[in-house]
Write a structure and sequence with these properties.
By secondary structure, the protein is of the alpha/beta class. It starts with a strand and ends in a 5-residue tail after the last helix. The protein is built from seven helices and 14 strands.
Length: 234
């Protein structure tokens, strides 16, 4: 059975629904986006209770913001890496440092103008992810969760057997973050992020599903990394 992928915009970020034999979701968007999530589910003809697992690619506010409300709505288990588990359970809202010149500028703008008004409703993390891969067969999806730190120390990616990769903020494809698709402008460790990008790409990734805006071909990232190796700025 081929997995069906539904993108549900939730503010500046996306939630993705992957429906195969079972149904999972990836990221919960900003706070107070439960109504928009329900609207997206209805459009995709998916009932809330079908969702068995909510995988949070990392713990920044625009990825965990509506997790508590959506968990209560669906009954889904929440999975988040151990390094950032307490961010959700304590309602914390750290922000990543800039990895590019524009990233450093925009990070300051965001922290000054937006972050003070963000409130995260805490909820328990049911599945604490570590460094090891986690197969998704138990949830009826042909794929796995892969630990891919760099953007943050708890970042993970979801890689389907089909070659579809959900990478959170390892990639971005939305103005004003980037003018074209590519790697993240924010990262705690950019070099580590690039290293983990290569590990992902070596696993026959075909399509990248970023948390911000629309999916794009994995070859765009392959080209960017190749140019960085050659010393060409992107």
């Amino acid at each position: 059975m081929i997995a069906k992928i539904h993108r549900i915009p939730l503010g500046i970020g996306n939630s993705y629904i992957v429906k195969e034999q079972g149904t999972i979701m990836i990221d919960s968007g900003e706070p107070k986006k439960c109504k928009a999530f329900l609207k997206g589910l209805s459009k995709a003809a998916i009932a809330p209770e079908e969702i068995q697992l909510m995988i949070l690619t990392h713990g920044h506010y625009d990825h965990i913001g509506s997790a508590a409300e959506i968990k209560a709505l669906t009954g889904a288990k929440v999975a988040l890496h151990k390094n950032e588990k307490h961010w959700l359970e304590e309602g914390l809202k750290p922000f990543p440092p800039g990895a590019t010149t524009w990233g450093k500028i925009f990070a300051k703008i965001t922290c000054w103008t937006m972050l003070p008004f963000v409130h995260i409703r805490p909820t328990k993390v049911d599945i604490v992810l570590g460094e090891e891969e986690l197969a998704l067969n138990e949830y009826g999806v042909s794929g796995k969760i892969v630990y891919t730190p760099g953007h943050s120390s708890g970042s993970v990616s979801i890689l389907l057997d089909s070659g579809d990769a959900f990478v959170g903020d390892m990639a971005m494809n939305m103005f004003p973050l980037r003018l074209s698709p590519g790697t993240a402008i924010y990262a705690e460790d950019q070099k580590l992020m690039f290293s983990n990008w290569q590990i992902l790409l070596d696993q026959n990734v075909k399509t990248i599903y970023p948390a911000h805006c629309k999916p794009f071909p994995a070859d765009i990232i392959r080209e960017e990394l190749a140019q960085k190796v050659q010393g060409v700025a992107v």
